[in-house]
Design a protein that fits this description.
The protein is of the alpha/beta class. It is 31% helix and 22% strand. It is built from 11 helices and 12 strands. The strands form 3 sheets. An 8-stranded mixed sheet has the order 7-1-2-8-9-10-11-12. The chain is globular.
Length: 306
């Protein structure tokens, strides 16, 4: 069994051809710009869309932990509702009772066989387009046994497999699944160690060490690529992108290197997870680089490009 938070069919940006992307929960990086903040914690979580609430009161009755409460606002004297997220165990009973979809359970424990039933539904599209299945996250390698089982079933059914990873773990995890992976899609987000620690939560040394070891995967027949999300206000300087791109050119020799513009879709998700106002912090300041800026940065990233 493993925990996933989405299965996205007909994806065209997560590897070659038409693909199904399976998103696994859990991540050991803390990128401040994360566009899937619902992936960070491995256990299921409740996302709240309280503007949809119709006040039926079902969630108050079914929640075994008493997470849903009413209170009187000191300023307006109005009765308001509150979700005590710290008490929530992720059982999902409140979400099951909420037909208005004001409460949604993000994350579901599933067997590998159940996940693959959905993946296999689109096998004809993979065969026609050269596509397959991509396992993403979060960081899918944190659920190693579950990921390995998913990859094994995929390989048994002749489906092209890709794994998206930030490589912030022991390289033995990569090696363990390598016999079942056709393509590793590896993120390399920041070169400067101080910036890496500030924006991602670690100095990136393990990631750099693992990037250097990617050529070892050739003995398993794996391809690997390196990708950089370009975050306006973080890593969008010519110096930083050149340093990032020069590293795989010297040590990694990927099939291709790709720059991807940041998007702020994660901001709206933060509110549903109880992060709002000042707590959002710098995440609200990041920008999407212009097309002109992206073209300039692509010109100076002088290794093999997609």
């Amino acid at each position: 069994m493993g925990t996933i938070f989405n299965i996205q069919r007909f994806s065209i940006h997560d590897g070659p051809g038409i693909r199904t992307t399976v998103f696994l929960k859990g991540c050991n990086n803390r990128c401040l710009w994360c566009h899937n903040p619902e992936s960070l914690i491995i256990k299921p979580q409740i996302q709240t869309y309280l503007n949809k609430c119709i006040g039926c009161g079902q969630c108050f009755e079914v929640c075994p932990e008493g997470c849903h409460v009413l209170f009187i606002d000191d300023e307006t004297k109005e009765t308001k509702r509150m979700f005590k997220r710290e008490k929530c165990t992720g059982c999902g009973k409140c979400a099951d009772s909420c037909f208005a979809n004001a409460l949604v359970l993000c994350g579901e424990e599933m067997s590998a066989q159940k996940v693959m039933e959905e993946v296999l539904m689109d096998k004809p599209y993979y065969e026609q387009s050269g596509g397959g299945v991509t396992f993403s996250g979060g960081e899918p390698l944190l659920q190693l046994a579950f990921l390995k089982e998913l990859l094994t079933i995929s390989r048994e059914n002749g489906i092209h497999t890709a794994v998206q990873t930030a490589l912030n773990m022991d390289f033995s995890r990569v090696v363990e699944v390598a016999p079942y992976v056709d393509l590793f899609m590896c993120d390399f987000k920041i070169f400067d160690r101080d910036l890496h620690k500030k924006y991602i939560g670690n100095d990136g040394e393990k990631i750099r060490e693992n990037l250097k070891r990617l050529p070892e995967l050739k003995e398993y027949g794996c391809e690997y690529v390196v990708r950089t999300p370009v975050i306006g206000g973080v890593n969008d300087t010519e110096e930083e992108i050149k340093n990032i791109a020069d590293f795989p050119e010297e040590f990694v020799h990927p099939a291709y290197y790709e720059l991807m513009p940041y998007h702020n879709m994660g901001l709206s998700k933060l509110e549903t997870l109880g992060v709002e106002g000042e707590d959002i912090g710098e995440a609200a300041l990041f920008t999407t680089p212009s097309e002109e800026k992206m073209n300039t940065l692509k010109e100076i990233s002088n290794i093999i490009k997609k």
